[in-house]
Records
---
Amino acid sequence: MVVKETDREVVLTRPDDETTSVTILKYGATVYSWKLKSEEQLWLSTAAKLDGSKPVRGGIPLVFPVFGKNTTDEYLSKLPQHGLARNSTWEFLGQTKSDPPTVQFGLKPEIANPELTKLWPMDFLLILTVELGADSLKTAIEVENTSTSKELKFNWLFHTYFRIEDIEGTMVSNLAGMKLYDQLLKESYVDKHPVVTFHQETDVIYQNVNPERAIQIVDKGVQVHTLKRYNLPDTVVWNPWVEKSQGMADFEPKTGYEQMICIEPGHVHDFITLAPGKKWNAHQLLCKDELNYQAIQ
Ligand SMILES: O=P(O)(O)OC[C@H]1O[C@@H](O)[C@H](O)[C@@H](O)[C@@H]1O
């Protein structure tokens, strides 16, 4: 069977290749496993909670309507870090296409986490579409402002945890020349390094990354993941390294930071504002591609 639904999750398998599958937890509509020919592509903490008691540490948590912890907006500032989508149980809307196998999940205030919608009383409809290609995974989001009178102000981000072999042998390409905000230094500057490498905690937001740029994760000269984006101008690059991992109870093993890198495409530098009745769409495509070092224009 291509789509298997249980109370907790949905598993989508390629009809032509049962070793290629994606598993989506209804809580947060969180993709927490994507296997390509039996090989896991995403990192998931061994202490991740999959029982709905907290957002999943790993996979692809969804960040909406706010990235990080807001301190200025009247309503968004009341929400916890990264908003309410990853801590709400979504509705499984079913399979929408057989080739490539595609499923959808929906979230609206009536079913979202009531503790959180109380703090952020807005009208919205989110539709997440997950499409399992032969060697790719596309996650697409549509945000609709279902209010007839109020604007909807939000961030969106796919918090993608990629599985890698060894963080110190890994580099991320095609972000050179981009302006970034370093969340640890609290400073903005242009990244002049030809590639991003990792030797310590990293938490940066690249802004307005040209949509033509495919971000590539390269392990000792070999492309292991390629990330393409639509309508997601910013990219967060995060690795907690030693100390920060120690402080996260759901981050295990403690050496797990060596096998993960978060490359998170989003719209987070500023807010999207949707007029009543309007929709906004974006997607990320995780795939494999030739190594392509793109020149800075
Ligand atoms: O622990 P959380 O809420 O899942 O966040 C993890 C990280 O998410 C990243 O997106 C942020 O840039 C980091 O600052 C943050 O630490």
---
Amino acid sequence: MDSTIIAPKPSTDTLLSNILAALISIQEDQTKLRSQVEEYQRATSTEDTVEDKIAAASSATSTHLSQSQQYSDRIILTTYPGQMGIKPIPLHWGVTDPLTRGPVVVSRHPSSIKRRNAIGAYGGSYCVYRALSIAIGALPANHIPDYGLTAPPVSFPPQPSWTGKAIVSMDPWGHMVPQLWGKEIQEEKMDLRPSIAITKAHMTIPEIEGAVQAGRLKVDGNVVLNAQGELKVTKAAIEPVWYLPGVAERFGITEGVLRRALFEDTGGMYPELITRPDLKVFLPPIGGATVYIFGDPSTIPDTTVPLTSRVHDECNGSDVFGSDICTCRPYLIYGIEECVRQAQEGGNGVIVYFRKEGRALGEVTKYLVYNARKRQEGGDTADNYFLRTENVAGVKDARFQALMPDILSWLGIKKIDRFMSMSNMKYEAIADANIEVVERCPIPDELIPADSRVEIDAKIAAGYFTSGQVPTEKGLADVKGRGWDDIQH
Ligand SMILES: Nc1nc2c(ncn2[C@@H]2O[C@H](COP(=O)(O)OP(=O)(O)OP(=O)(O)O)[C@@H](O)[C@H]2O)c(=O)[nH]1
Ligand SMILES: [Zn+2]
């Protein structure tokens, strides 16, 4: 680990008085509070630890949760290696045998807290809702999930890529946690949770029903089940689990720089990023991904079975609500149709859907950029497409695809015959992961919505793949999107 990391010193009276001031501000009964604080001051006039003082301060202001929530009396702000008898379960990232690798333990449940070997919380971004459920008393803090009947209905066996550093942003054993560590869960009552879940489903999409009715897709009873275009799918939901040294290496930075930025720029949310250099795994509170598989998952690693794939980043406005300003839904649906066709022809189709809204800049940034694009002098032109995003966000894209291929590697993919994307960033990341891409398939012109030519031409000029012409600078300035009131009747 980078030696520039400086662990903050706990315990100062300034810290204590700041906390007291904050707690006082939320207390309605000021008189009662004052007497409680005085009592606390009397009680803590001897040499107490900062944890004692904070515990006393918080009990004086009733921030303790009810008994049923079973938190300890002391608020543990952070931990230090070797402190208070903590003994992390060994976690050897990337070793072949899962039992030697060890489970990812991140729960603060009493049976698990001293054995944590990771930073953060289970559940991706949903850990915050879990906390809220506990705060309002809807969920006991000590709840241990019942994993009866939840095992994957389809086997996803280990692949050679599960060993080593091909996977650093998810736990390749994440779907087998209850099976691999059943003894710890059942006998030792440890709170170990899966970070991957696999299931089977049927799905319908209006455009696919249209494709069946137009005769582009046939009903085969196995992939396309009926004339309504119902599809049979196997799917896996995946939450992020980051092996910090591996993530840092992917981006060519030190682990220390990564830890410091994650600490500082999330509001100091995870002090253990700084105080626990011995913990190498972090479960970030961000969105995960879902894999949709058409065909037979067991043949995905077989390079003689053709594979079509699209890796898609979430765009709620287009994917769900049909906005015409970008190509997201049409490209996604085109990708699904081609995946289904490939599966019907004896191959497989894999869609990976990442929750990285608005190029991982979020919808608020995205809409601010839309406003600026529509209001700029000369209209919404392709030459200013990326500049407008950079003006607002400081960066034109925060998806940084370097971690994306982990999911493909987890599936055992070594070759993609048809890659349904024009993105040079996705393509280069996949190539860096030693996955061969045979053919890159751009979105057909007739599927580009009214307002999206601006986006496509700007992207092609910036390096996105095209089988057609690359626009010139002058050409870009001439490609204009719709104004807000520019309605076609
Ligand atoms: N910030 C921002 N995000 C956008 C905009 N248009 C689309 N997105 C987001 O970009 C992601 C999709 O990227 P696209 O630009 O459609 O394409 P791509 O994924 O880079 O490349 P393809 O695979 O060729 O589609 C999604 O996360 C969208 O929400 C935009 O104007 N501004
Ligand atoms: Zn979009």
